[in-house]
Amino acid sequence: MNWTLINSFADWFSAFGTISAVVVSLHLARRDKSPRLKIFAGHRLLVQQGVPNPQNQDYLVIGVTNVGLRDVQVTNIGWKIGVLRKQFGIQTIEPIRLSSTIPTKLSDGEEAHYLRPLFDGKDWARRFYKDFLAPNPSVRVRLTWLQVHTSVGKTFKARIEPGLQRKILELGATQQSAAVDGR
Question: How far apart are CA 183 and CA 181, in angstroms?
Answer without folding.
Answer: 6
